[in-house]
Every structure is written in structure tokens, then in C-alpha cells.
Amino acid sequence: MSALICGSVAFDTITNFPGRFAQQILPEQVHILNVSFLVPTLRREFGGCAGNIAYTLKLLGGEPLVMAAVGSDGAEYLQRLQSWGVSTEHIRTIADSYTAQAIIITDTDNNQITAFHPGAMQSAHLTAVPADKSIRLAIISPDGRDAMIQHAAQLQAAGIPFVFDPGQGLPMFDGEELKRFVGQATWVTVNDYEGQMLCERTGESLESLSRSHLRAVIVTLGAQGCDLWQQGVRTHIPGVVATEVLDPTGCGDAFRSALLYGLERDWPLERCITLGNQIGAIKIASRGGQNHVIDKAALGV
Prior knowledge:
The protein has ten helices and 13 strands. The chain has helices at 21-24, 49-60, 75-83, 145-158, 175-184, 192-202, 206-210, 251-264, 269-284, 296-299, and strands at 2-6, 10-16, 41-47, 64-71, 91-94, 100-106, 112-117, 135-140, 162-164, 187-191, 216-220, 225-230, 233-238. The chain has a single domain, classed as Ribokinase (UDP-N-acetylmuramoyl-L-alanine:D-glutamate ligase), CATH 3.40.1190. By secondary structure, the chain is α/β, with parallel strands linked by helices. The chain has a nine-stranded mixed β-sheet, with helices on both faces. A four-stranded mixed β-sheet has the order 3-2-6-7.
């Protein structure tokens, strides 16, 4: 039983700004924005939504199947995935591109500014959803625009239920395209900012979206937890206090790993989300998207 993870495999360059963005950006001057942030720390990590989701799902005991694209510099990443026992047969190497890269600046309030070079990710659509009967469900996470559109359609045609997780890729799509994604998906998960944008572009509300064929709309709220919308009813699942707040990079991906793990096992969504909140709190206490460890016994999984 596998979970197909469609999304980016990327390298993250992570820096920290020891101040607040809000104190450096003058709202009345944003039309001539010219700012520079001194970032005394810098790390290079393995990242990308698909890579991060696969990492935590494998830690939990799931079977992630990654479908993505890497560039000529991606061999090290492929070896890393293989070292976890994750198949790389559906990861295409694009010889004349670099692997996608995110350059992230985090301030003291855990706000982030990210520059993203898609590189090989723009060719992810060249790989089609495999005809694999072991795939029970899937997730469409941020990826190349064409890949997200085509893979969603292929999953629907194959009858494979999937989570639509547009993330930072959401602004690439207009209202009609987003309505099509929602119509094809079984679950939708967004953070509160993305949820507002999704509603504005589709002309729907979270309540009305949840009254459709969708089994749920899940809205993550960071430390405050998560709102679960089902058939017009909102249920709030409280957050979990982290032992330490070091780096929010990859917290959303860690949450989605737990969601997939629970869905694979037909758990009630409240239980899936409770585990997601726990995993998010564990991840934020570790730097990077793939360096945290999980005590499954302590989590009761």
C-alpha cells in the first residue's frame, strides 16, 4: 500500500534574519521596495514538498512513492531517498537543468520570505501517474504548473483519491483552474492564508467548499492548531506546544505526512489532524525539513 507524492524535490538554502521584517519594510514605500537583510547564519538542506513529506511519512512507517523531477545535480538527493528505502523509479532526471532550489529567510517571528528557482521541476509533467495497483491515495503538492494540472487529471481518471495541497503554488492558478482541482480532489488542505486566497479566487467560502463532494477542507493555523471543515461544520483541533521553536521550514509538509499516514489507515480525520499537530510541533523544534526524529511509541502510532 503506497501513497503517491506528487511535488517538488528541492534544495533549501535557509538563512535567519535576527530581526522583524515588519520593522524593515515601510508600508508607504512598498512601491519602491529596496531592502536588504543581514543573515549571519546559512544552511543548505534537502527539501522540497515531496521530499519532506516522504521523509516524515517513512519515519511514521508509511510507504511513500515520490513522483518528481531533479536536475543534473540531483544524484545526492536520489541516493538519500534510496537510503530510506524509498523508490526513485518515478523521479525523472533532467540533464540540462538544476534541481529546484528555495532560498528562505526567516525572521524572529517565524515569518518567511522565499525565492524559488523551479529548475527541473518545470519538467515534472513529463512523468505520468503510474498504473500501480498498490497506490491507495495520493497528494498533489506544489510542483510545476503543468505537472499539477496533468497529475490531478490523471489521478481522477485512475480513480485514485487525492489530497489537493496547492501551498505556495496556489497563485499560479486562476479561479476556474482552482475549481477544477477542487472538483477532482477528495480532500483539500491549505494554511489560513492560502485558504483565504482559495476562497477569493473561486468565489466560495470554506463552508461552501466543505458542503461539496469533498470529504474535508483542512486549514492549518500554525501553533493554534487546525480547523476541520466537513459538510459546512467547523471543528477546531488545538495545536501542540513545541518544546522549542527553531525553524518552521517544512512544518506544513510534516503535517501532511501525518494526514496521509492516517488516511491510509482509514482513521477519523480528527485523529489524523491531531497526529499532524503533534508532528508539526516536533518538526519546528528541529532545523530543516528532514532532520527531525519521531518516537512512534510516544505518539501511539
